[in-house]
Amino acid sequence: MNRSRFILRTATILVSAVQILTAAQTPAAAAPVVAFRGPEVVKLEWNTRALQIADLNGDGLADLAVANNDRSAIEILYQLKPGAPIEAAPRSLGVNRWEPVLEDARFRKTSVTTGVTVFDFVVGDLNGDGLADLAYTGEPQALTIRYQQKDGTWLEKKISEAPEPIQFVGSLRLADVNGDKRMDLVILGQKEIAVFEQEKNGQLAVPERYALPDDNCYGLEVTDVNGDGRLDFVYLRNNTRDGLRVRLQTAAREFGPELAYAMKPSRCTLQVLAAAKGKTPATFAFAQDATGQLEVFDLAQAPSTDSGLVLRPRVFSPRSGGKNPACYALGDFNGDKRIDVAVGDPDGAQVYLYLRQPDGGFTGAQRYPVSADVRSLAAADWDGDGQDELFVGSPKEQSVGVAKFANGRLAYPQPLPITGKPLGLAAGEIAADGRVLLAVIREEKNKRYAEVWARKDAGAEMLKSVELTGLKTDPRAVRLVDANQDGRLDLAVFTPLDAMRLLVQGDALEFTDLSTKPGFRKGLVDNLESSALTLGDLDGDGKNEIVASVSSFARAMRINEQGELAVIDQFNARDSNAEVACTLILPQAGAKRPVVVLYDRKGEQFQILRANDQGLYEIADSTPTGKIDVITAETRAVPGGGTEAFVFGKDRFWWLPLGQADYAATTQSTHATDLPEISYSDVIAGDFNGDGKPEIVCVDPGKNLLEILGRGKDDRWESLMHFKIFEVDQHYQGRKGSPMEPRETLIADVTGDGKKDLILLVHDRVLIYPQE
């Protein structure tokens, strides 16, 4: 409603509006003037949130909707047609002083009872009938859909498959995620992202779930990050140096592993200024937490160079919780000549299978049932058909089973005739003639054995058994290593509170426990966990050394000709306070010596060491990584050239495809206001003047002020206007609401004139500033 000037007095605030708010424009500026009138005022309740704009009744006019937790309802504000009478606002029942009715906006109010405390709320067509529906998260019901009926009523449907929601606005999004022209629902929950795709019949499918590696994520945005035409997920995480999180959608319409990028801490969620298009990167804006300045950055592809390694982990988190650590195996399970990843979930009696794709990536996790309490996995081509089988060890069920991938799924493991409690499995070409054998560490009647088994018909037969004496407790793992580099695989056995046992293979599958020999030097591997042992070729002779990570350094070792454990080299971290959890040996094309990478668990970083001219390894660089509780790590050559590394952890694993292009968040511009004592806490983007370039509304809710920025000369951000929303009445003693106002801002065309308007949620009001 166009009026020259008014003063709105509520119980706590004095709101003033100017007749016209006009953007200053220099003669050289090409963009039209931006001017507002108003505001128009809608009286609501104090505890409102998640303001939405949409045509809810299909009359072609923009309506408003907002969650009202004071009334446990969704308030719907239907816009009246021009000339229709404005309904009088109801008088408040809780007024303790005179309060004039100053509501003058163009809306008719109605409400939909929720019966819950709403956290977030969205509006859109969720069943394909052409009518706008409501979806909201809350407590106690996690997710509710209210389907609009033709008579204007709202049918309630509670969604039981929803994840536990977070309590912030910006966790619920509607988007055509899979490109089928139907709106899908995406929820960023406390421990996972859930995608409810809308099916052809208008029903929401069972959600696809993507576990979050870390808590405290918020601010979900759905946009194209890499310019491939598919929508991706972008969100933030609090209290971390790599707070920007991205999940790219694959060609199979699944969302891949989480990628973490460094950005300055933010006071608000991200604003998407532009989605990626082709080689033009996606652009985002936010308010810096430390300075209150506006920052604009893009997420552009940054290819790796010869001078450095790209060591950004792709983080896979197959499960959102679990008391017991996962176990892992690498193998070609579907026979396509590509290595897949199997993850054992002991709490869920299941295995997650990540199958390799032709582009080198992985599918989403496929779940298959296995034995309860699975604690160890191994993979090898047991039957010689060119396809690896999966071995599954369950101490609780005292069984070792073998499973084969056939007919599009992993079959349930079939038991092998192995008695007792399996404590660890390893499989490979253990025999000197290249036969694939299975190594088993087991306990039976308080005795522990290391055994080697071979396939026989449909079952298995034991070829060798060695009793492990003198142990105080059960071993936890067995690994295959060629400790003396004679071409035959040996068994490394890991037991808590004991030195690593090394069973070296001789002729006819005879194993000698070198750890009992005088020259073994147990102190080098005392209390060594399986997670701290990796393998790598340091001298380029094609034979792997044993690399043990201990405290703030790692040592490369092998068994020498005298049968002694000898140290070949040592790699020290940058400082003695580091906690090296595992070490990766990465060969480099054209280099005589590989790169050594130490994972510092305490510093949550990779420390990169390179050999100098004298062959001494020195720190060359470091890169932040995030955290992982390491179980084991492995480096392997990729067919066709290249190297990849895996770091497997208790609740997640990292994939490091070396040499592949990466992305980087690069600051493009910043802006600090010249207004005294003003700093931004929120930014909202929208194209007010229709020139195709977004303006940005910057909010200082502590000072109740807005400043609108636009691009000026040299593409710099310039202030177009600023104004204070209200003045505080210092004498009022009643309800004051949030000290940070306005708490929500929208930019949308309310009036239907083709120009974007400014909508604010302030205290118990919606203020609408129509654009001139």
TrEMBL record:
<dbReference type="InterPro" id="IPR013517">
    <property type="entry name" value="FG-GAP"/>
</dbReference>
<protein>
    <recommendedName>
        <fullName>VCBS repeat-containing protein</fullName>
    </recommendedName>
</protein>
<dbReference type="InterPro" id="IPR028994">
    <property type="entry name" value="Integrin_alpha_N"/>
</dbReference>
<keyword id="KW-0732">Signal</keyword>
<feature type="signal peptide">
    <location>
        <begin position="1"/>
        <end position="30"/>
    </location>
</feature>
<dbReference type="Pfam" id="PF13517">
    <property type="entry name" value="FG-GAP_3"/>
</dbReference>
